[in-house]
């Protein structure tokens, strides 16, 4: 496959293939692969410790795979540093990463600036704050004063400033009240409508299935199933078996 330097409109927004990755001598990913088409929302689900976050690290350039490839919009980024992946439109929302001593507004401006786009203008920061009245009210307070939910909002607000082509989110519902999660989901939908393809790793299957178009299930470092969210939502027994790591019980391959 050819790799155009600035990507191609027809290529998937994100494509990983044949990923093998290890921490020292311990191999965690075995031939893992997934694709997120332009404009699509996809979830990566699976039991604890099967390698979902590790695959996100490989996508973000934080862990060099032993084998396999990562492409963004058709560009092979496997050997590229994180910085270049960000330039190509990748934005990862992992945990509640913020600069704690900077104010809420400064965090947003800083993110726009470091993402190398012109989106760090005052207007973009104001537009992001306008989506979150709670952040707007705390715009001049240090990020260290924010609650867990407010920090998740700030992490997603950064994505608005960056207007990413590919938004990768790791566990945004973790520890948050349902009403906050509902608001964040709405925001992710809006980002998707504005053109961001989304890859979501999520422990809450309900959150994932109500948000995404398609789901990959991972077990022991491998993708074991891929289906539409609607088909999985209609088969709760199968979802339960997959999330418990019941490869055979879940009827994989049937
Ligand atoms: N930095 C690290 N060094 C060594 N082993 C690690 C490291 N990070 C993760 N692991 C191990 O790699 C395996 C996969 O971890 P990973 O965090 O990718 O799983 P996960 O599917 O995201 O889990 P969870 O749903 O619990 O977040 C686990 O056995 C974990 O203990």
TrEMBL record:
Molecular functions (GO terms): ATP binding; ATP hydrolysis activity; branched-chain amino acid transmembrane transporter activity
Keywords from the UniProt entry: Amino-acid transport, ATP-binding, Nucleotide-binding, Transport
UniProt-listed PROSITE patterns: ABC_TRANSPORTER_1, ABC_TRANSPORTER_2
Gene3D superfamilies to which the protein is assigned, alphabetical: P-loop containing nucleotide triphosphate hydrolases
Parts of the chain that traverse the membrane: none
SMART domains according to UniProt: AAA
GO biological process: L-amino acid transport
Residue intervals of the ABC transporter domain: 14-245
Protein family (similarity comment): Belongs to the ABC transporter superfamily.
Record protein name field: Branched-chain amino acid transport system ATP-binding protein
Organism: Nocardioides soli
